[in-house]
Amino acid sequence: MMLDGSEAGGQFVRTACALSAVTGKPVTVKNIRGARPEPGLKIQHIEGIRALGELCSAEISGLEKGSRLLEFAPRKFSEKDLEIKVSTAGSIGLVLQALLIAAVKFEKEVKISFNGGGTWGKWAPPVLYLEKILFPLLGCENSIIIDYRKDGFYPVGGADIEVVVKPLKPKEINLLEKGKLLEIKIFSIASESLKKASVAERQAQAAEFFLAEKFSVPIAAEKKYVPSASAGSGVLVAGKYENSLLGGDAIGEMGKKAEEVGREAAKNFLSETGGAVDRHSADMLLPFMAFAGKGSFMTSKITHHIISNCQVIEKFLPVKFGIDSEKNIVNVKKV
After folding, report:
1. Catalytic site residue from 45, 280, 304, 305
2. Which superfamily, per CATH, for 79-169?
3. How confident is the model at residue 67, as a pLDDT?
4. What are the counts of helices (DSSP H) followed by strands (DSSP E) for the chain?
């Protein structure tokens, strides 16, 4: 089938290739990332697609930096351990997101080793966000184990992590009401080189101060210094509700004070509290809802990522999505 990515981002092509690998349906994507300032494939897209291709012995053409046309033709699916090299600070979280879709077809445990790339990147979910927010929402937090040997921070990358993924069994997801907020956890991470400047503590303190003014629930902060290839930091705020989890994150950058990073993560979390799932987990949940054949959620905002992901999934699976943009509700059913 032919898909047009002229109005979409990288997730469009990642989801397409992941579903192609799972269903065995070949796909051609043209005008890749046509809506972005720098169109075409980037390194993290290439490495994710290459890894998906290894899982299904795919014939691939157009897999090069800047390419705007990709042909992905899967053959026999066979799960295997993967070694993925990312030469930039490209997001490991985004690569892993695509591979998790393929994990619904796993029949045995798969080990994925990442050499290079970012665990904390710009315009992408930190790997910690997947671990603390997405995996529990999918009910697979006990099926995926992550060993952070070395974190990778924007803009250098250089991570070294190993992810062990057991076969994932999609379940029906119904998250229309998040329920009462029970607690908030702050994960403040910084490279070991920033310990002297107390960056992890300052980030956590700023986030906690901001959140304590808004919420009257227990707030706990985990401050951690980690091995890394370069100086860097990040904060994840995770809110645990009766029925759901919401997250907000921010990364450190040159010239950006630690306190600013902490407040930014807290503000990002606050902006998501209107939904039962945040806008970032929303688009990542969609393929798994489709595999289950039914489900619904209310998110904080209907994003273009959500809309384009629904469109791609409907091309591969016998489902139909319904989107209520006024109530920010997405549902899916079999057709």
Report:
1. 305
2. RNA 3'-terminal phosphate cyclase domain (3.65.10.20)
3. 95
4. 9, 16
